[in-house]
Amino acid sequence: MIKLGIIGYPLKHSLSPIMHNPALKHTGIEGSYQPFETKPENLELAVKDFISRGYSGYNVTIPFKIDIIKYLDNITEEAKAAGAVNTVIISPSGKTLGDNTDVYGFMAAFDKDDFEFLTGKNAAIIGSGGAARAVGTALIKMNLAKITIFSRTFKNTAATVETLNIINHNNISIIANTIDNIDIDNVDLLINCSPVGMYPDTNKCPVEKKLIDQLNPDCIVYDLIYRPQETLLIKYARSNNLKTISGDEMLVQQGAMAFEKWTNKKAPINIMREKLLEALNNETR
Ligand code: NAP
């Protein structure tokens, strides 16, 4: 009997139980995945509770992705680089390991066996928060030539660049800039890691349409937002026949990775994707 869950505050819009409970059932694993809405002042207690109540692991969401690190025994290289944990794995002896499966989820959504097609290319990231750090970590692993990060506050962007440079062993050029100076002329991969365009502000786009119209025809546009699945950014890119990736696939992939780490079984990714898309489609009706 496996016990899994998610901790955050507030939690009522989490899609993770919708993916993980059917995944457990489909894999024939007895157990459940439960939401634990936890006030920030109770975080430390909740971390201890998961251990004493025999949990195998849990997901971590807003606002605890950074604060939880100080209560964990260890964190992975990916979580260290991203400065954030979204998955905790608890060993049978009660030791906690914090991981960041967003790094893997971002990469897996490309649906490629290797990333040679991105070697030496330029990426632009919009946003400099937790998601941007996970994406930056992934891009370093994918060996791009240049990564530029744009957000409204230079201080935030510079801090993200500093963190990423700790794992930047290949000397990739990682540059901080502000969104006012956005220049995406020679970009091969444009990634939105800001909440601009997310429900209910679905009429917003983090980049002006005229800049998207100037992107090179091979540029890939990736939006981490999954509410809605087709953001204005993705719509503009598709209208120019650019290749796009939307946040729902990354969400499924990061969930599948967490499932595998907790259960040591292959995640039934088709079931997880089907349940997630069903829930997202129902929300928009
Ligand atoms: P966060 O930590 O709050 O960071 C948001 C970032 O966006 C901040 O760095 C902020 O920096 C920047 N920003 C806000 N408005 C901006 C604008 N107008 N132009 C440029 N930058 C702007 O949030 P997060 O956890 O990183 O999440 C970001 C988004 O990714 C959310 O929509 C979330 O749902 C999504 N996400 C998706 C997945 C997935 O699996 N698909 C996983 C993680 C996150 P400044 O204040 O300096 O502008």
What does this structure look like?
It is a single chain. This protein has 285 residues and is of the alpha/beta class. It has helices at residues 16-27, 43-52, 77-82, 101-108, 130-141, 154-165, 209-213, 232-239, 247-263, 269-284, and strands at 2-8, 31-37, 57-60, 74-75, 87-90, 96-99, 122-126, 146-151, 173-178, 189-192, 220-223, 243-246. The strands form two sheets. A six-stranded mixed sheet has the order 2-1-3-5-6-4, with helices on both faces. Strands 9-8-7-10-11-12 form a six-stranded parallel sheet, sandwiched between helices. Helix 1 crosses helix 9 and helix 4 (101-108) packs across helix 5. The radius of gyration is 19 Å and the shape is globular. The mean pLDDT is 96. The structure holds NADP nicotinamide-adenine-dinucleotide phosphate.
Low-confidence stretches: none
Largest sheet features: 6 strands, mixed
List each distinct ligand once: NADP nicotinamide-adenine-dinucleotide phosphate
Tell me the total number of β-strands.
Answer: 12
In terms of quaternary structure, the protein is single chain
Radius of gyration: 19 Å
Structural class designation: alpha/beta
Mean pLDDT: 96
Distinct helical segment count: 10
Query: Could you say which overall geometry the principal axes of the C-alpha atoms support?
Result: globular
Name the helicity range. 25-40%
Termini distance?
Answer: 36 Å
Q: How are helices and strands ordered from N to C?
A: EHEHEEHEEHEHEHEEHEHEHH
SSE map:
Elements: E1 2-8, H1 16-27, E2 31-37, H2 43-52, E3 57-60, E4 74-75, H3 77-82, E5 87-90, E6 96-99, H4 101-108, E7 122-126, H5 130-141, E8 146-151, H6 154-165, E9 173-178, E10 189-192, H7 209-213, E11 220-223, H8 232-239, E12 243-246, H9 247-263, H10 269-284
Parallel strand pairs: 1-2, 1-3, 4-6, 7-8, 7-10, 8-9, 10-11, 11-12
Antiparallel strand pairs: 3-5, 5-6
Helix pairs in contact: 1-9, 1-10, 4-5, 4-9, 5-6, 9-10
Bound molecules: NADP nicotinamide-adenine-dinucleotide phosphate.
NADP nicotinamide-adenine-dinucleotide phosphate binds next to helix 4, helix 5 and helix 9.
